Amino acid sequence: MSLPARVLRAIIADDLTGAADAIGSFGASRSSAIVLGADSPWPDSEIVAIDTGSRYLSASEAALLVSAAVQRARAENRIVFKKMDSLLRGNVGAELVGAMTALTGKDRGLAIVAPAFPATNRVTLGGVIHVGGQPAASAPFHGNIRDALTFAGMTCQSITSHSATIASLAGEMRRAHAAGRDSVIVDAVDDFDLEQIARAAEQLVFPTLLTGSGGLAAHLFPSRGTENVRPEIMSPASRVLVVVGSYSDLARSQVDELIRLGCLHVERPLTPGAALSAAATILASNADVVFTPERLAPVNKKNAQEVASALASTVEVVAGHFDALVLTGGETARAVLDTLGIRTMYVVGELEPGIVLSRSVEHLPHLVTKAGAFGDSGSLARTVRSLKNHTKDLREQ
């Protein structure tokens, strides 16, 4: 009896941690890989998540990169999922327009937009993103998804998934498409809602594009674990390097918890010679290390890339002395991996929602990525403990 053909998928994301968020839940059950850069080779994995690096590009540049990635996915017969930021950061509307144009061609399709990520306390109500129960007023477009999409010229209709059946949701999607809409914004407050949205989309016969955060991405398949992927057996890490590029209050509290755990805290000033000085301090110790920008330096969000590059230059010197690297924040993670020459990461699984464990064939250390805004004050400390005690397949935890 012949085996059923694999269903290949491509997740298109605008930054590294977003790509990881969206694919992380599949690492323990399906062959999954994260690819850095729109032009990098794609491995023969069932699911690939591509970081186009387009979040901070112009809208037109971002749309072109995403369109090219979607065309490439179609050429490989991959079903496309468009990852969008759960706080509407980046070129959300422009990238969705680029993806839809490449996906549908002359046909008229429907983008099904549901950026809720309940596991990280981000839900959508009335087409507005809420964080911790409150509207995300400080987010771009004040968290209003319709405004983000209409800004790029899309036509939208809002619907709710709460208490809806799969059949009724699919019916509302069909009516929106028949009315000439090119997108529907679907409210969701829990994972059941997201599961219903994903299954309703499967009922449609016209071109569709599921669009959302890691919350919706986790429901791309009706059930997980159907592919025979060899379990990853992880040895405990003897030494962990945590790199935190963010100055946020949450990041500071996470660093404080790591220091309480016994990690050596090393700071990286933006001054000549600081890279080697920080590296010397790290190499002189055998402890786990949390590596950050200079904490008392004035915060300047405009030099975020400079900070990320500075951290990466030191990590390049010391990475080989650690069994695991934990990278917090998309810019920081991408800068470190680019410096280390890593273009592909093979996903092992999630340690927590949004905290993704991967490996690279080119380098020894295991890699953990986390978006800067995810988690609580203890997230990084728990991650380090998990890595140091990690001796078995993630699926058994």
Overall spatial form: globular
- Name the structural class: alpha/beta
Order the strands across the largest sheet as they lie in space: 9-10-5-11-4-1-3-2-16-17-18-15-12-14-13
Mean pLDDT: 90
DSSP helix count?
12
What oligomeric state is this?
single chain
Could you walk me through the main structural features you see in this protein, from its secondary elements to its overall organization?
This protein has 397 residues and is α/β, with parallel strands linked by helices. The protein folds into two domains: 9-218, Rossmann fold (3-Layer(aba) Sandwich), CATH 3.40.50.10840; 240-388, 3-Layer(aba) Sandwich (Molybdenum Cofactor Biosythetic Enzyme, Chain A). It is built from twelve helices and 18 strands. The chain has helices spanning 16-23, 59-75, 92-104, 145-150, 166-178, 191-201, 214-217, 249-261, 274-283, 304-318, 330-340, 379-388; strands at residues 9-13, 32-36, 47-51, 79-83, 110-114, 122-125, 128-131, 134-135, 156-160, 183-187, 208-212, 240-244, 264-268, 289-293, 324-328, 344-352, 355-359, 366-370. A 15-stranded mixed sheet has the order 9-10-5-11-4-1-3-2-16-17-18-15-12-14-13, with helices on both faces. A three-stranded antiparallel sheet has the order 6-7-8, with no helix packed on it. Helix 2 runs parallel beside helix 3, helix 5 crosses helix 6 and helix 10 (304-318) packs across helix 11. The radius of gyration is 21 Å and the shape is globular. The two termini are 34 Å apart. Residues 224-231 and 391-397 have low confidence and may be disordered. Pfam families: NBD_C, SBD_N. Residues 241-378 form the Four-carbon acid sugar kinase nucleotide binding domain. GO terms for molecular function: ATP binding; kinase activity. Belongs to the four-carbon acid sugar kinase family. It comes from Subtercola vilae.
